[in-house]
């Protein structure tokens, strides 16, 4: 069996919007936010963590984007791993990195895609029944 690829984790506050979009699409998450919105989402984020293949082109295969005050709670807005790299521990690795960077005083919250619920349960997150949401209108 081939060795699993080595993954490089990093904080990339200046991540390129096109790369971000590619991973969203490759993960199955979808990337229909539009370029302007994606750029704004990245430039206003507080946490942009990446996972890249440890090879010459350093291909981006995973990303986590969080919004936080660094003192109370961090909202994970996107967590996406390219389909070709899913199941290698990258999603868990990115969440672990985020938790280490935020430290023990900061809670983490997110709204799961239906297909990802089992992942969040698997990595030990607690399901909160009383969550509320106003949908964006455009
Ligand atoms: C959900 C997602 C981020 C998981 O990333 P990943 O790198 O494939 O997951 P990992 O390899 O880190 O998995 C960690 C553990 O969770 C399990 N797991 C992964 N996805 C799972 C799922 N959908 N359901 C149940 N368990 C899952 C793995 O088997 C692994 O278990 P193990 O610790 O026993 O080995 C990735 O599948 C993805 O990008 N999905 C599409 C986009 C999406 O839905 N993102 C979440 C938005 S809320």
From TrEMBL:
<keyword id="KW-0808">Transferase</keyword>
<dbReference type="InterPro" id="IPR045039">
    <property type="entry name" value="NSI-like"/>
</dbReference>
<dbReference type="InterPro" id="IPR000182">
    <property type="entry name" value="GNAT_dom"/>
</dbReference>
<protein>
    <submittedName>
        <fullName>GNAT family N-acetyltransferase</fullName>
        <ecNumber>2.3.1.-</ecNumber>
    </submittedName>
</protein>
<feature type="domain" description="N-acetyltransferase">
    <location>
        <begin position="5"/>
        <end position="138"/>
    </location>
</feature>
<dbReference type="Pfam" id="PF00583">
    <property type="entry name" value="Acetyltransf_1"/>
</dbReference>
<dbReference type="InterPro" id="IPR016181">
    <property type="entry name" value="Acyl_CoA_acyltransferase"/>
</dbReference>
<keyword id="KW-0012">Acyltransferase</keyword>
<dbReference type="GO" id="GO:0016746">
    <property type="term" value="F:acyltransferase activity"/>
</dbReference>
């Amino acid at each position: 069996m081939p060795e699993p690829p080595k993954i490089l984790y990093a904080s990339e506050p200046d991540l390129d919007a096109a790369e971000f979009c590619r991973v969203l699409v490759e993960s199955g998450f979808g990337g229909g936010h539009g370029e302007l919105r994606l750029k704004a989402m990245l430039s206003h984020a507080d946490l942009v963590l990446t996972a890249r293949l440890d090879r010459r082109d350093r291909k981006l295969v995973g990303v986590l984007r969080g919004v936080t005050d660094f003192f109370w709670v961090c909202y994970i807005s996107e967590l996406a791993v390219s389909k070709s790299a899913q199941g290698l521990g990258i999603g868990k690795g990115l969440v672990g990195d985020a938790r280490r960077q935020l430290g023990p005083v900061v809670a983490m919250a997110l709204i799961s895609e239906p297909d990802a619920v089992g992942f969040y349960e698997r990595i030990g997150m607690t399901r909160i029944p009383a969550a509320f949401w106003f949908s964006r209108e455009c």
